[in-house]
Amino acid sequence: MYIEITDKTGKVSEELQQETVKLLNFAAGFIHLPDNKEMAVTYVTNDEIQAINRDYRGKDVPTDVVSLEYEPETIAFDDDFDMPEALREELADFDSFIGELYISIEKAQEQADNYGHSYAREMGFLAVHGFLHINGYDHMVLEDEKVMFALQEEILTAYGLTR
């Protein structure tokens, strides 16, 4: 999986950025995501994530991670349309981008301090949590929450990123 990392804060080490890429690729393999998928991770401040949270979720407060799942447009063709293979392959490429994550480094540090674990562990947790969201997992109802939270903990533990 291709992952584009952007650090708008200038405060996330190259090592942590690369570790995030490794962790998310591990998570992608864990849920059997096809190799051709792409996503983006952007590290931001509380002010920036508050604006994103307000604009996309209608919540005017800073949060730890915002996940924007990409849902490609459905393109319909007449039943008698004989699609050339080159066009079929080109259209398949549009389905490769799965979404983007915005992670507040300030919230990550605050939560790491509150939970008593490392900043790296919290950043990894937020990346996996957001990654699962853009792959269709949610925690709005208790049954879904149990599934998602168990899976994210299983991924983090298997990767070796424990509390």
TrEMBL record:
Cofactor note: Binds 1 zinc ion.
Localization per Swiss-Prot or TrEMBL: Cytoplasm
Domain of life: Bacteria
Listed cofactors: Zn(2+)
GO CC, alphabetical: cytoplasm
E.C. designation(s): 3.1.-.-
GO terms (BP aspect): rRNA processing
Keywords: Cytoplasm, Endonuclease, Hydrolase, Metal-binding, Nuclease, Ribosome biogenesis, rRNA processing, Zinc
Gene Ontology molecular functions: metalloendopeptidase activity; RNA endonuclease activity; zinc ion binding
UniProt binding sites for Zn(2+): H129, H133, H139
Record-linked InterPro entries: MetalPrtase_cat_dom_sf_prd, YbeY, YbeY_CS
Protein task: Single strand-specific metallo-endoribonuclease involved in late-stage 70S ribosome quality control and in maturation of the 3' terminus of the 16S rRNA.
Family that this chain belongs to: Belongs to the endoribonuclease YbeY family.
NCBIfam families: rRNA maturation RNase YbeY
Protein name (record): Endoribonuclease YbeY
Organism: Pseudolactococcus hodotermopsidis
